[in-house]
Every structure is written in structure tokens, then in C-alpha cells.
Amino acid sequence: MRSPVAGFVLIALSVGCNAVSTPTGPSLVAASAEFSGEAGAATLSARSSTVPIKGRLEGVADPPEPDPPPSTSFSAHLAATVNATHLGRLTMDYSHRVEGLNGSGSAIFTAPNGDSFTTTVEGTATPTSSPTAFIVVETHTITATGGVGRFADLRGSFVVTRTVDFLDPFTAGSIEGMLIKQ
Is residue 181 a contact partner of residue 51, using CB atoms and an 8 Å limit? Predict the structure, then answer.
């Protein structure tokens, strides 16, 4: 003979097993919906952090490719290694166009795991006592859409100050600026 308690347990188990449940928490789609609209923008901004960066850059510049005379413009390329606080060790691939003492271009910074970000670059060169050497100051600006992986929501800007000599392809300098990570 069955006891009334055993019947109750069987009914409770069958009702509980038929309940619809999600084995995991809310989906990323639902979580991202929380951040839409003005209130979401304020919440997202409250979660961002601004950090200073400082570091070094060392690399090799390809020989400049001058435009035909009488132009004073040329195209240039730099491959460098960067080591900076809050960024770590990165490679930099930088192509730019120089007209007179001013240049502009874009650079891609890549971490060993493939995470990367892109900057737009504006710079100015100042001649030194050597006719082939310059001190170059470049401002790198990171856009909100310029990153992949851990750099996906990275914004900010930093300044690279480096020396370059057209007779020696080696270039080195410092990096200093501010980054905003959402």
C-alpha cells in the first residue's frame, strides 16, 4: 500500500521537472538592453576608467619613398615594439604621409594574443643639428571603434616623442597619455 506522502512527493517532482528554466543567467542580449537609452549611457559612463600611460617605443623605419620633384612630400613606414603601462608589450605598424615637416597617418597596435587597436596620427618634425635627423612628436588618437579583444572599448590619446635619422633606420622614444576603458 502506498502512503499519501509518497504520492505527494511524486506529484511535486513531476511538476518541478516540467517547469521551464534557464540553466544560465540572463543572456548578453538582455544585459546589453539594460544599457540602451540615456540611462544606459550614464551607467556605461560610470563604469569607464581613465588611466595614465607611459612607456617606450623602439623600431626601424623603412627608407622614405619621396614623391617626384619638385614635391617635398614622402610616404614612410615604421615597425616598432612598444612597452607601456596599462597596455603591456605591443607591436606597432605605422604608415604615414609627410609633407614638409608635418605628417599624418594611422597605426595599428597589436598584443601578442592578437588583441589590437588603431590610432589616427598627426605629427610634426623638428630639425636637429644634423641635417638628416629630426625629433618627431606625434599625437595618436584612439577612436571607440578602433579596438579588438581587451582593447574593444578603448579610447583616448597619447603622444609619442621620438628621434629619427634618415641615415640610420633605428628610432626610439617615449609614450605618454591617457586612456579611457569602458
Answer: yes
